[in-house]
Structure formats: structure tokens, C-alpha cells
Amino acid sequence: MGKDPAIKRLMIAETRKLIEEKGHVTIKDISERCYVNIASVNYYFGSKDNLMFIVLTEVLTEIKERIIKLVSDNEEKDIESFLERVIGYIYNFAVDNVGLLRYFFLSADMKEGQLYEFVRSFFLDPEFIAIVYKSLGDYLDTDDMKLLQVKYLIIFSSFFMPLFIQIIQPNVDESAQMATFKDPVFKKYFTKQIIKILK
User: Fold this and answer.
1) DSSP for residue 167
2) How much is the pTM?
3) CA–CA separation, 110 and 49 (whole Å)
4) Burial of 37 by CB count in 10 Å (0-12 exposed, 13-18 middle, 19+ buried)?
5) Per-residue model confidence (pLDDT) at position 4
6) Most buried residue, 3, 61, 143, 180, by CB count within 10 Å?
7) 106: number of CA atoms within 13 Å, CB side?
8) Binning pLDDT at 50, 70 and 90, where does residue 164 land?
9) For residues 7 and 53, what is the distance between their CA atoms, to the nearest angstrom?
10) Rounded to an integer, what is the distance from CA 168 to the centroid of its chain?
11) Over residues 23-50, mean pLDDT
12) What are phi and psi of 75, to 5 degrees?
């Protein structure tokens, strides 16, 4: 009897939820949540590291697919609406998935290759970058690649450092770590300032 794809899918989905809920996840946590024996992680994925890499890849794919859909939707022709859509999505995703981000940024479970994948997805994926450049260029009415590169870097890097600072605050309760980003006034100012820089 072969591997059951439904069990494999369940293990990926539940591992993602466990990361969000607990931060640190063990094979025992995964097996208990999915009602499978501990050996199932290795049976289905080869190792816990491989499972974590699949979860990371799925999260990154989800983010990128949504961003591609947002930047490809040309109903709104002004740059401000375009930027509000993209920045708003990234911002909300970060606030709603802080447990995942904390895990990807800080967990000792994450290997160098997995951290590289996180960075590669946004800063070294030529296909994704080209799609965003094209939409930015259309909205800004420019094909100046240096200008588009700068604006792209501002959009995607503007979140990483502030998020990292929020997540690694020492002596701060985990529920309070994202308090600044969850503040609607901060979100409004933050978004407006990024848009101001990008316009």
C-alpha cells in the first residue's frame, strides 16, 4: 500500500498551524495533531527538515501567487491604488502570520538553505521580479530598470527589518511583539510613507 496523499496533505497543513500556534514544533507534536505515529514524518517526508521546507515553500508560493494576482489586476490605473493593494496585502499577511514569520526568521530548526529560500523567493526569483517590474513600469509609465529595481527593493525590503525588530524584541511577551504593526494608526502612517517614497 502506497503513501496516502490525504495524510501527507494533512501533515503539511497541520504543521503550518502548529508553527503559527507554538513556534517550536516537534515530530511528536505533528504526529499527535495528525493522529499518526511518529515514524510517519520520516515515511512521508524523509525528515522533519524536509517537511519544514515544504511548509516554507508553500507559504512563499501562496504569498507570491497572491502578489502576482494583485499586480496583474489593472482595473485601477493610478499608482497609489496599486501600491495600497500590494503593500496592504504584504502588511496584513505579516500581521496575520507572525508565528510563521518568527519561525522562519529565528527558529534553530530552520537551516541555512531554508532561510536562503525565503530571501531568494522575493529578491532572486527572476520570473516573479519580472512580473512585478512590468506592473510597476506600467503604472509609473517607465522602463527605467534601475528605477524599477529601487522601487521593487523598497516595497519588499521595507517590511523585513521592521518585522524582524518587532519579532526579536527581548523581554517582550509574544502576544505584544507585533503590537506596533497591529496598531491601525501605525499601519496607516507606515503605508502612506512607503507609498510617498515610491510615487
Assistant:
1) H
2) 0.79
3) 8
4) exposed
5) 86
6) 180
7) 18
8) low
9) 17
10) 17
11) 89
12) -65, -40
